[in-house]
């Protein structure tokens, strides 16, 4: 083999690695026109994480995308096989694998680059590079989907190479294709000359599945999985013992119409529409749902207040509270107690509830005109909570002294006024829940309700509060969680959202005892079940992994048939589930 290939590979790998030490490059690099190289940082999720437990940077190799500009570059650099893409990655359905033959060539190049004995290649002293994983197209008889390699070191010296091979068959429901644990252990023992072996099990169950509503499925990214690990596996597909370590992975998308807090979600959507209108100048007003216009509703509300000597009527508030509660007719009484509308709504908060039916800018202006006129004439002296900094609250406080500042209800002012009272009301709703359930203190929640940031950021933080509320309510309703589990989950959510933007695809994790949720999975099929057979320690450790999963073990295999439940198993387990069967093996090659 010519020294040109390994030398080019060395130069490219060193360059990518050096850049990665500063910051992980977002763009791919290319090698010999057909190979795309991406550097994945240690903090990012590794595509090969199921079969490699390292936490450092790794190279991921796959087939390069084809476009006209790359052809021009190829022509202009015919004598130079290495070049960097300056283009954004072309959108595609997903990563494209290389042929197994090509992947083996690349593994050989990587191995040569790392071998200090290859002096005839005139490569400078090898530096231990990050591990390499290559997406493969399963075109060989073993159906290889991944090939991997990483250097073995003693101190700073590279002494060998660690090779990985992942193969996959399926999907199938035929358990005669499943391995026998005893045979797996014997094969590992013979291959690696092991006298002492350890086994470790892993199982993942989906606790909450998409439920059917009137013969349709609710489109949602929400799911709650439990990952369970244990030592000493007795048999293939063993049910995890209750002494196992378990972690819940909770991904929840807000807005499920079945949620007890769905009405609050709709309230939040109106708040977001106002915030967007304030930012862009274009507001999407909701379709009127009531026969009465918002102006008529507000007028009746003001007329009612005028008849009250003290300007506030508890019974009237109760009626309004009942009106704006979510429809709990079909909801169990235990769910009602999780989140209920506050009973201490002040004038501004009740006004927000009335004006959520506003369907145009003109209607909004007319509503505030009525309110300000009543304040100016002293016809009402409504009660409001202390601490509000909204413009309407300031006008109400001024009205107590018989005079209010003039205000022009034009431009964005009416939208901002309504947004402010909505923000105040919803902040108090969320704070009332978290403090009332003893899940957080006011100090812990201060970040989410702070008025020291602009209105847009305040709205963004209220969205975070709502997402946390949806998570707590779902875990209470669906998993029957008590305070001992909700409290640490709340702290996890608060910590994450103080440091990160809203992300409803983030999986919040909670360590739990398997016994707490056993009833949800004990009679179910796992989504993933695997056993690791290992021997040796440190760099001499070798491992064999056997796994079944309902989905392919790699995203570049998504064009294959996906393992799904049979049609007759949506509400039961009478049929077997379709599984992909994956085997991961390794070997070590010593250079000295």
UniProtKB/TrEMBL annotation:
The keyword Nucleotide-binding does not apply. Its main location: nucleus. InterPro entries: Zwilch. Keywords: Cell cycle, Cell division, Centromere, Chromosome, Kinetochore, Mitosis. It is found in: Chromosome, Centromere, Kinetochore. Pfam families: Zwilch (PF09817). One of its GO terms (cellular component) is RZZ complex. GO terms for biological process: cell division; mitotic spindle assembly checkpoint signaling; protein localization to kinetochore. Belongs to the ZWILCH family. Essential component of the mitotic checkpoint, which prevents cells from prematurely exiting mitosis. Required for the assembly of the dynein-dynactin and MAD1-MAD2 complexes onto kinetochores. Its function related to the spindle assembly machinery is proposed to depend on its association in the mitotic RZZ complex. Component of the RZZ complex. This is Protein zwilch. It comes from Apteryx owenii (Little spotted kiwi). The lineage of its organism: Eukaryota, Metazoa, Chordata, Craniata, Vertebrata.
């Amino acid at each position: 083999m010519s020294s040109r290939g390994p030398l080019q590979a060395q130069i490219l790998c060193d360059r990518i690695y050096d850049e990665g030490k500063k910051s992980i490059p977002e763009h791919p690099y290319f090698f010999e026109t057909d190979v795309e190289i991406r550097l994945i940082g240690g903090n990012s999720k590794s595509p090969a994480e199921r079969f490699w437990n390292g936490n450092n940077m790794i190279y991921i190799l796959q087939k390069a995308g084809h476009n006209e500009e790359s052809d021009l570059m190829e022509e202009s650099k015919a004598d130079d096989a290495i070049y960097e893409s300056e283009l954004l990655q072309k959108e595609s359905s997903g990563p494209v694998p290389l042929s197994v033959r090509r992947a083996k060539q690349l593994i050989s190049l990587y191995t040569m680059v790392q071998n200090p004995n290859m002096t005839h290649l005139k490569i400078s002293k090898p530096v231990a590079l990050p591990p390499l994983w290559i997406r493969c197209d399963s075109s060989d008889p073993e159906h290889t989907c991944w090939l991997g390699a990483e250097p073995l070191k003693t101190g700073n010296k590279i002494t060998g190479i660690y090779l990985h091979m992942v193969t996959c068959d399926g999907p199938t429901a035929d358990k005669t294709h499943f391995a026998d644990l005893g045979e797996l252990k014997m094969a590992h023992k013979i291959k690696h000359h092991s006298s002492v072996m350890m086994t470790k099990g892993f199982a993942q169950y989906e606790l909450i599945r998409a439920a059917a509503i009137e013969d349709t499925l609710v489109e949602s990214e929400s799911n709650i999985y439990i990952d369970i690990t244990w030592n000493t596996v007795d048999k293939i597909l063993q049910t995890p013992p209750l002494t196992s370590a378990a972690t819940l992975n909770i991904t929840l998308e807000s807005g499920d119409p079945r949620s007890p807090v769905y009405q609050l979600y709709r309230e939040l959507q109106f708040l977001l529409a106002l915030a967007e209108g304030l930012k862009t100048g274009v507001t999407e007003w909701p379709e009127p749902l009531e026969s009465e216009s918002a102006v008529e509703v507000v007028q009746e509300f003001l007329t009612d207040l005028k008849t009250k000597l003290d300007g506030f009527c508890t019974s009237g508030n109760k009626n309004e509270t009942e009106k704006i509660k979510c429809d709990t007719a079909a909801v169990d009484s235990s769910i009602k107690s999780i989140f209920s509308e506050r009973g201490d709504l002040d004038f501004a908060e009740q006004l927000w509830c009335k004006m959520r039916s506003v369907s145009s800018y003109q209607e909004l202006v007319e509503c505030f005109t009525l309110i300000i006129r009543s304040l100016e004439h002293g016809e009402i002296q409504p009660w409001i909570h202390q601490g509000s900094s909204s413009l309407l609250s300031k006008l109400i406080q001024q009205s107590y002294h018989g005079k209010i500042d003039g205000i022009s209800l034009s431009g964005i002012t009416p939208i901002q006024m309504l947004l402010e009272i909505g923000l105040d009301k919803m902040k108090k709703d969320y704070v009332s829940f978290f403090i009332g359930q003893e899940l957080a203190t006011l100090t812990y929640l201060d970040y989410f309700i702070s008025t020291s940031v602009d209105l847009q950021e305040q709205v963004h933080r209220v969205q975070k509060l709502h997402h946390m509320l949806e998570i707590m309510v779902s875990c209470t309703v669906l998993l029957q969680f008590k305070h001992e589990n909700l409290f640490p989950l709340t702290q996890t959510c608060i910590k994450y959202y103080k440091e990160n933007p809203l992300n409803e695809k983030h999986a919040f994790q909670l360590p739990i005892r398997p016994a707490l949720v056993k009833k949800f999975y004990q009679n179910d099929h796992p989504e993933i079940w695997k056993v690791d057979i290992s021997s040796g320690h440190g760099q001499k450790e070798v491992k064999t992994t056997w796994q079944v999963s309902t989905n392919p073990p790699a995203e570049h295999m998504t064009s294959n048939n996906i393992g799904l439940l049979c049609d007759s198993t949506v509400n039961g387990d009478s049929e077997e589930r379709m599984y992909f069967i994956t085997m991961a093996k390794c070997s070590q090659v010593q250079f000295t």
